[in-house]
Backbone:
């Protein structure tokens, strides 16, 4: 028993924290300065990192120096470097300097803004910063923002709100044990999987999402949407929500939101805009057209952790109907009742999570550090680099563009003459594997009308024209090598 009494207690002593914090910050500064020297994609096999970790936690505490040594020796080799200037896969992102500082401070404060009184500044900074962002994106007044972890969660909340707005009393009665019409969400065939997943989670099922055909530029066809809604209504199905995407994941196509909004208004259906990636382009005055029509949406998601240089995670859900979101999610047990009552915003009311990280700090610091003009010039440059690469690809006979480039994503493939489609697919798969295995650049792939295509996304603050030029040279070199090997 006396052993227990002699056990150390309390946190790391302040001076020890200070020493290691300085060490860690120095490591971070060196890392960010030299991140381009690492292989972009982790060069480890599945299980390799786990095999180097003890099977159980230590009984006795360990010195920070030992822990940091293992961070460098065991963890870092298993890191795929999203902050690398040659990271072109999925959507390329940046944890910027000001964003990282905000994340560090938020960790130190460890505040949980579930209620206004548990986080007055986080609650009010979130509202103010998101109103800045609303203005920067050219959205009208009346859009109310909250920060969520991911676009997947933002969209889940939006569709839950659409279901609440439909007046089926799902909140009280639930989705089972009673007569309910089949409910539908509509989205283009290019839509992100998070919409299907929201349908799965909300009890709509996979058949609850109906995919609408796209045109030759991969944009939702509003006439086909309207026809689907009319057909479903006639069959007794209840249209809940339309998800329009500005910047689809596969090809960055931009749905005609204004025309889709007309259909939604005519049929009384909630319009949610998935602008997780493309919404950031609205920070560039001449690209603001990407959000044309979005002012008529009921809700919109944009991810500052995607193309606004804020460290993951930070997703913003804007809605013109915050009272519906609250109606769907607010539930206040006695132990969370506060004397402020209805006079304040309690962030726990706007989604399924109670706890609320202080994510607005890193967004605020990033927007202030770069300013509206600095944000715009960086995003504009990414678009310029993408257009430049597309022009190089267009200039080569044996390469072809697979989709237009409205923003900063280039979708293309190597198409040697005389190769049929199946062999071209296999060839591009091998090419992608060879490029990624080399560790000098990291790209991802998609299928465009069934054909394998390479995706090169530009969005990292360290990516320069030289990096794009080198990646293009590498692609051509590897294409020749892979072909010679075949
Ligand atoms: C990235 C992306 C998502 C998913 O974002 P998460 O924040 O990872 O959930 C959804 N939709 C689109 C269009 C995206 O680009």
Residues:
């Amino acid at each position: 028993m006396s052993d227990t009494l002699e056990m150390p207690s309390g946190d790391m002593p302040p001076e020890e924290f200070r020493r290691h914090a300085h060490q860690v910050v120095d490591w971070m500064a060196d890392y960010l300065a030299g991140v381009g020297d690492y292989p972009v994609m982790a060069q480890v096999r599945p299980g390799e990192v786990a095999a180097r970790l003890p099977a159980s936690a230590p009984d006795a505490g360990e010195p920070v120096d030992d822990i940091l040594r293992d961070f460098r020796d065991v963890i870092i080799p298993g890191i795929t470097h999203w902050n690398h200037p040659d990271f072109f896969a999925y959507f390329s992102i940046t944890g910027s300097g000001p964003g990282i500082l905000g994340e560090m401070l938020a960790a130190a404060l460890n505040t949980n803004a579930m209620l206004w009184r548990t986080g007055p500044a986080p609650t009010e900074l979130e509202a103010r910063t998101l109103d800045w962002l609303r203005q920067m994106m050219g959205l009208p007044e009346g859009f109310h923002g909250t920060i969520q972890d991911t676009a997947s969660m933002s969209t889940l909340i939006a569709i839950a709100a659409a279901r609440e707005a439909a007046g089926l009393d799902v909140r009280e009665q639930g989705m089972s044990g009673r007569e309910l019409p089949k409910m539908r969400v509509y989205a283009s065939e290019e839509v992100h999987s998070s919409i299907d997943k929201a349908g799965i989670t909300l009890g709509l099922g996979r058949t609850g999402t109906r995919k609408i055909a796209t045109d030759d530029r991969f944009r939702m066809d509003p006439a086909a949407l309207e026809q689907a809604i009319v057909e479903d209504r006639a069959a007794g199905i209840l249209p809940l929500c339309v998800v329009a995407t500005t910047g689809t994941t596969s090809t960055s196509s931009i749905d005609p939101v204004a025309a889709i909004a007309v259909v939604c208004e005519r049929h009384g259906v909630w319009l949610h805009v998935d602008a997780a990636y493309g919404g950031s382009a609205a920070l560039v005055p001449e690209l603001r057209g990407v959000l044309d029509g979005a002012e008529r949406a009921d809700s919109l998601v944009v991810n500052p952790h995607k193309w606004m240089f804020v460290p993951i995670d930070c997703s913003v859900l804007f809605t013109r109907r915050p009272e519906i979101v609250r109606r769907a999610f607010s539930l206040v047990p006695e132990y969370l009742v506060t004397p402020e009552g209805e006079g304040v915003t309690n962030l726990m009311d706007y989604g399924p999570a109670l706890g609320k990280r202080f994510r607005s700090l890193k967004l605020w610091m990033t927007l202030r550090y770069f300013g509206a003009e600095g944000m715009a010039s960086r995003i504009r440059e990414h678009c310029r680099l993408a257009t430049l690469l597309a022009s190089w690809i267009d200039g080569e006979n044996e390469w072809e563009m697979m989709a237009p480039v409205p923003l900063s994503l280039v979708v293309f493939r190597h198409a040697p003459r005389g190769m049929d489609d199946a062999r071209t697919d296999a060839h591009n798969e091998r090419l992608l594997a060879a490029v990624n295995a080399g560790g000098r650049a990291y790209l991802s792939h998609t299928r465009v009308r069934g054909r394998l295509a390479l995706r090169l996304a530009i969005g990292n603050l360290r990516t320069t024209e030289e990096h794009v030029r080198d990646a293009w040279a590498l692609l051509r070199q590897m294409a020749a090598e892979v072909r010679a090997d075949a």
About this structure: The longest helix spans residues 360-394. The pocket of pyridoxal-5'-phosphate is lined by residues 91, 150-152, 192, 194, 245, 247-249, 274, 276-277, 303, 306, 315 (CB under 6 Å).
